[in-house]
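Running low. Any example?
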Amino acid sequence: MFDLINDDYKNLSLGLGFFDGVHRAHKSVILSTVNLAQKYGYKSAIITFNNHPAECLGKNIEYISTIKTRDELIKQLGVDYIFSLNFDKKIMNTTREEYLEVLCKKFYPKVITTGFNHTFGKSRLGNPQFLRENAIKYGYEYYCIGPEKINGEIISSTAIRERLKKGDIKSANEFLGHYFSIEGEVIYGRQLGRKLGFPTANIIYPDKLVRIPYGVYKVNLELESKIYSGMMNFGIKPTIDDGNNIPVVEVHILNFNNDIYGKIIKINIETQIRPERKFNSLDELRMQIKKDIALC
């Protein structure tokens, strides 16, 4: 399972997990991995996957972040190496004993860190207790990071997905410790926003990313290392009934009118202003957009 990774990576401080969204609790695991590496003079590494293990069971997973965004967030925490594997049936059917043995013979870890609910191996039988019991056998120190809570609720990817689906962006961001974001290339639309007097940058909502409700959102936008304020609409534009029900992400960047077609933008979503609704006329829509911009 680690065949494509060369043998130059040994004596590491390893952090194990999927880390979807890299929320506050994930960051504690990753920072522990990095800090222990620095303390003892090792390199730090994260072992993770390109796809959620549940997809091997035929489940439909909605991700909080793309793999690209996840890995960028992990690197920002000071990790030296990220090893991201393709989770397949071979890995799914590997016993916890086999997985740990291969992991230790490949990397000779000096330290292993996981969250309190980390599992691995066939039937998810590998867990913190198993890692603790085998620490002396394989010569590593094991650290288990306990749960983190906000207002008495444990921070988890599941809790964050639920909030995002309800449009409770502010609370989801609090659990994440950073903005929920959407990233993509600016594409040509029908330029209806420009005709209304509010030009927009359009991107495609990332495939498999958790869907937030249709509506209008206050956002900030990252473009070529600069930050801009903006307003985002995500939905099917019911006022403009063109028979196309494909949802679109449209961002009006405040005080900005440059041509950015083909450029990559990252939209950080701050809060929902209102749900999407159908207006009686384009003039009524135009007036509402002015109010929405004022709120942003």
Remarks:
- The domain at 12-153 is CATH 3.40.50.620 (Rossmann fold).
- The radius of gyration is 22 Å.
